[in-house]
Amino acid sequence: MRHGWPWFGPDAGVALDEVRQAGATDIVTALHEAPIGTAWTDAAVAERKNLIETTAPGRTPLTWSVVESIPVPDAVKRQGRAAKADIEAWIASMQAVAKADIKIICYNFMPVVDWCRTELDFETATGSTAMRFDQQKFAVFELCILRRPGAERDYTPAERQAADSLLRSMSAQGTEALITNIASALPGSTTEPLTIPAFRDKLEPYGGIDAARLRQHLIEFLEVATPAAEALGVTLTLHPDDPPRPLFGLPRIASTAADYDAIFTSVPSPANGMCYCTGSLGVRADNDLQAIARRFAPRIAFAHLRSTKREADPRSFHEAAHLEGDVDMVSVLRELLTEDRKRSPGRSIVFRPDHGQRMIGDFGRTSAPGYPVVGRLRGLAELRGVIAAL
In whole angstroms, what is the distance from residue 19 CA to residue 7 CA? Predict the structure, then answer.
């Protein structure tokens, strides 16, 4: 397996030498500054690749091996094949990436909002801090701040009352932080930051789109994109929903083994692959991570390895240390290594330590939420240790 590191570019506060020192060899990144729906140019991709792969004498070389992500525009999720211009722009970006010999592309199909957290610095028992999804705070946002029409039907009277009470106890600063955390797009997000009015406007066109229709739009996108990917030797890897359940009354269609099976059955192309994310899938107690890895092993080109810990209300969870939480990481890695041994070196699975707790030198240092240097260094070291032992 190839040891990857997510890197948000030269202005993100993490030097490439720090990536080398962490033990990673493969860079996972994207043109995060490019507007969603705009085709990436050959020149822009080549410039970023040269920055990553031009190695000073005596330095360990790095390879840009995974693009995470080329955002799928909202119009594709709402309209499917009818969003022809947006799909063509997406394929043009893929072509630019393939021309630079980068052959794994991660993407997701979460409507309106990408991955979602209510807290960015939840203090753990060790004094480190972690990202958290608190169902009660989410209810405050949806019921009392966003005031989504029909949201009250998704909550019991007791839950609605608890949300009102919690809002009254929150400071103005706490309320603003909650809005920012949910609506302003977390790092690596493939959706746009939103104001509350814009958030409501984005939700409205999805009124008639259920899970079956959203899945059909994904299939229509893949029916166009995968032949192009096959011709280029590219594997597309669909990231699971995070959290893996409907949010804001919106369907989500990449949350379970059954979801992925439906997608792979409908579009059997070898270019139609999976980003196997233990953190996202692991939030659901009914997802058997080892069975999913075994079942879809040939489809896994890219893996996000992290652990989450479900709380007393299982809809709430926080990011645990990589070898703790609800994920049996040793068993997961055993499955991935079994698959990886069957492959040629050029098709080896790329994995990366996903997220991390802020600790030690991370405090006071600028870093993207969820992506501290020391916390991820610990995660990668633990994963590398398990791999070496296995």
Answer: 9
